[in-house]
Model the fold of this input.
Amino acid sequence: MSVYENQLAEKGFQKVAGLDEVGRGPLAGPVVAAACILPKGAIFENLNDSKKLTPDERESLYHQLVNEPNLAYGIGVVEIEVIDQINILQASFLAMRQALTVLKVKPDYLLIDGNQLPYFEIPAECVIHGDSLSISIAAASIIAKVTRDRMMTELDAKWPAYGFKNHKGYATDEHMDAIRKFGPCPIHRKSFDPIKTMFFSDTHLDLFESLPSNGKTLH
Done:
């Protein structure tokens, strides 16, 4: 998984940052991105695409990564209101830019998971399935995934009817049943179907925007 980083090192790039985002697909919650620059020669056992790891494995690797003193990482979070305003793709790119902004080390090259390349002033390339092919992207995917999962667990305490700690906002049967029963809550993405079609006629939108932030749901 260090092939990309090694090839770039041979070309003179020494501060390669991997970027990945988590949360494009869910019906609720923020999108989170991470940027990560690994120290040269770093080895993290079982480091892989976050989706291929168990929650315990992700937590263990997250702890190793963020506590490695020679590793630089940044996290970007874009909330639901912005996602609904600018669309999820642009929100994902914005989260990546935020993550780069807070990196303490300025990278000289970017490896970005996926097949769509946002504009950066730094040289960059997309790597399809990069979280399985690049150690830097894999590290970023774990940091982003654990960060977002923790956020969704915290949101579950505020909106317990939906089971966010279990499905993290994805469209599972449990989640869809809760939405049909209780309607959407303020952390649901109003621009995403089927929520948009099911609830956000003008009448439903007026009801939604009048909800207090006290855990009540739209019936």
The radius of gyration is 19 Å. Confidence is low (pLDDT under 50) at residues 205-219.
